[in-house]
UniProtKB/TrEMBL annotation:
It is an enzyme of class 3 (hydrolase). NCBIfam families: 5-oxoprolinase subunit PxpB. GO terms for molecular function: 5-oxoprolinase (ATP-hydrolyzing) activity. Gene3D superfamilies: 3.30.1360.40, Cyclophilin-like (2.40.100.10). The gene is pxpB. This is 5-oxoprolinase subunit PxpB. Pfam families: CT_C_D. Residues 7-206 form the Carboxyltransferase domain. Keywords: ATP-binding, Hydrolase, Nucleotide-binding. Its EC number is 3.5.2.9.
Length: 249
């Protein structure tokens, strides 16, 4: 399915509907997801409770007492997404440490990909990432834009828990973790930034569609920033993008 294909409307039980725009990680597909999300918010459709945008689709939770799946589908088909103004994305500059003990799987990734560890770091640092979705666990930040040279399959079996803030790669995707959890991905670095903090006014650091750039720090800076983050600081820098923005991640 290409990014210009007609959307598919897929019932998900009696109280949710998925609108699917494609089958790949593609900025154009994600733009269509976000355009529909913005149009739904503006239209204030009866019965809609929540929308959950993802890489290539959006799930719409609704109250079946107020609207049926068929009626909601008809309403969604009639929405004019092109005329809806979307929030301008932001760019986040996030500190990242790729030195021991924060790069637990870097040497393993280098061996699998046949690249020097420092080249792995250079490639990861040099990319511009897009926040495509949150999922799997609270605050897990799924990113697009990982360089093709860093494409590595998931592990056959999960590894021991990766710490919060781990920078993971696998399956052509990049991820920032928010909590300690076993993983089938590979950890090549870590950030002191809390991408998810229920105690903070801004619970989720980035909005869906925002951009992320990683900036290298050493272990001493990581420790200092970690203490600041525990005290409630964001320790990430936000930039507003120009009105005519473009995202390639």
């Amino acid at each position: 399915m290409t990014s210009c294909a007609a959307p598919r409307y897929l019932p998900a039980g009696e109280s949710a509907l998925v609108v699917e725009f494609g089958r790949t990680i593609d900025p154009a597909i994600h733009d269509r997801v976000m355009a529909l999300d913005a149009a739904i918010a503006q239209a204030k459709l009866a019965g809609v409770i929540e929308t959950v945008p993802t890489y290539r689709s959006i799930m719409i939770h609704f109250d079946p007492r107020l609207v049926t799946t068929d009626a909601l589908t008809r309403a969604l088909r009639s929405l004019e997404t092109a005329a809806v103004a979307r929030a301008r994305p932001k760019r986040w500059r996030i500190p990242a440490c790729y030195d021991p003990p924060h790069a637990e799987d870097l040497d393993e990734v280098a061996a699998i990909l046949g690249l020097p560890p420092e080249r792995i770091v250079e490639l990861h640092l040099g990319a511009l990432y897009r926040v495509y979705m949150y999922g799997f666990a609270p605050g897990f930040t799924f990113l697009g834009g990982l360089p093709e040279a860093l494409r590595i399959p998931r592990r056959a079996t999960p590894r021991p828990p990766a710490p919060a803030g781990s920078l993971l790669i696998a399956g052509g995707q990049a991820l920032i973790t928010s909590i300690v959890m076993p993983t089938g991905w590979y950890g090549i670095g870590r950030t002191p930034v809390k991408v998810f903090d229920p105690q903070r006014e801004r619970v989720f650091l980035a909005d869906i569609g925002d951009e992320i750039v990683f900036e290298r720090i050493d272990p001493a800076a990581f420790d200092a920033m970690s203490r600041a983050a525990e005290a409630g600081e964001l320790v990430a820098r936000q930039e507003d993008l120009p009105e005519e923005f473009s995202q390639d991640g």
